[in-house]
Design goal:
The structure holds two protein chains of two kinds. By secondary structure, chain A is mostly beta strands. Chain A is built from no helices and eleven strands. In chain A, a hairpin with a 3-residue loop joins β4 and β5. The model of chain A has no long low-confidence stretch (mean pLDDT about 90). In chain B, the strands form two sheets. In chain B, strands 2, 4, 5, 9, 10 and 11 form a six-stranded mixed β-sheet that branches. A five-stranded mixed β-sheet of chain B has the order 1-3-8-7-6, with no helix packed on it. In chain B, β7 and β8 form a beta hairpin. The chains are: A mainly beta, B mainly beta.
Chain lengths: ~120, ~110
């Protein structure tokens, strides 16, 4: 079974631009979560999508948004990029998210650099 | 050991030794905890989890201990191997109505010398 894939793997953008990152979960997984990882703040939860609906959201500004499609693939968008948005963005999928185990499978991440 | 939000400590061990990685979590009401392993250039990998109604849980070569009195979590790796070299971090799930909205520790870098 193929793992979680994320595209692109690397991205360089300029301040003020917007960016869209893509995540394809493991086949059969309906929950997709997004995380931001930086040296300064570590790993932080952005949001979770389940059945095309945002189910949970972390403490990030509204510039960060996402969506999920009927095939469970997900995208996240960051508008009006700031230098501080430079980070590794990770996507993780799981079967449901409301079970006894929240075992998630992470993708390799997209490394975003904002200049 | 590590505390959420602070520096990234390093643990160096010899191959074959047992390793103990510590984590101090922040929310006394957190009901679920996970340990992750992250190798360079890869996303985190689930190692083992434990619920707050348990004190100990064992997996293959790993054991997680939970001390709710002092809000402390530890990961024990038996017979550490070079392939165990990675950053390890814990995550806690504060009460969230059945959802998983984790707060992560900063991590501990484990270096295993052959």
């Amino acid at each position: 079974k193929a793992g979680v894939t994320q595209t692109p793997r690397y991205l360089i953008k300029t301040r003020g631009q917007q960016v869209t990152l893509s995540c394809s979960p493991i086949s059969g997984h309906r929950s997709v979560s997004w995380y931001q990882q930086t040296p300064g703040q570590g790993l932080q939860f952005l949001f979770e999508y389940f059945s095309e609906t945002q189910r949970n959201k972390g403490n990030f500004p509204g510039r960060f948004s996402g969506r999920q499609f009927s095939n469970s693939r997900s995208e996240m968008n960051v508008s009006t990029l700031e230098l501080g948005d430079s980070a590794l963005y990770l996507c993780a999928s799981s079967l449901a998210g409301r079970v006894s185990s929240y075992e998630q499978y992470f993708g390799p991440g997209t490394r975003l650099t904002v200049t | 050991g590590e505390s959420v939000g602070l520096h990234l400590p390093t643990l160096s061990v010899q191959e074959g030794d047992n390793s103990i990685i510590n984590c101090a979590y922040s929310n006394s009401a957190s009901d679920y905890f996970i340990w992750y392993k992250q190798e360079s250039g890869k996303g985190p990998q689930f190692i083992i989890d434990i619920r707050s109604n348990m004190d100990k849980r064992q997996g293959q070569r790993v054991t997680v201990l939970l001390n709710k009195t002092v809000k402390h979590l530890s990961l024990q790796i038996a017979a550490t191997q070079p392939g165990d070299s990675a950053v390890y971090f814990c995550a806690e799930n504060p009460p969230s109505g059945g959802s998983y909205i984790p707060t992560f520790g900063r991590g501990t870098s484990l270096i295993v010398h052959p």
